[in-house]
Amino acid sequence: MPKTQALTIKDVVNVQNENLRTIGQKIIWLTIRNGSDENGWASVSLTDLARNTGLSRRGVVNIINRMKTCGLVEASNDHDSHVSKNKYRAITL
Q1: Domains in the chain, ordered, with CATH?
Q2: What is the pTM of this model?
């Protein structure tokens, strides 16, 4: 079985730098982080993120998907509600 290489803080910082390059990416990540509740989750609509960044809704979805893939954001959907809301959590050091 191959040995797993440990991640360092430098690795994490590099992931953030590589995936938060544009103003839109930074605004989305900061909006999620700064709008979080005591458990770290933020309920923010894709429409609001698009409006705040000047990006299309599709552009926001693409950025969030990239952030989820690289581990900068977690997503959850509240299926218990009659109006389904997306919740996001920014992963920080």
Answers
A1: 9-90 (1.10.10.10)
A2: 0.77
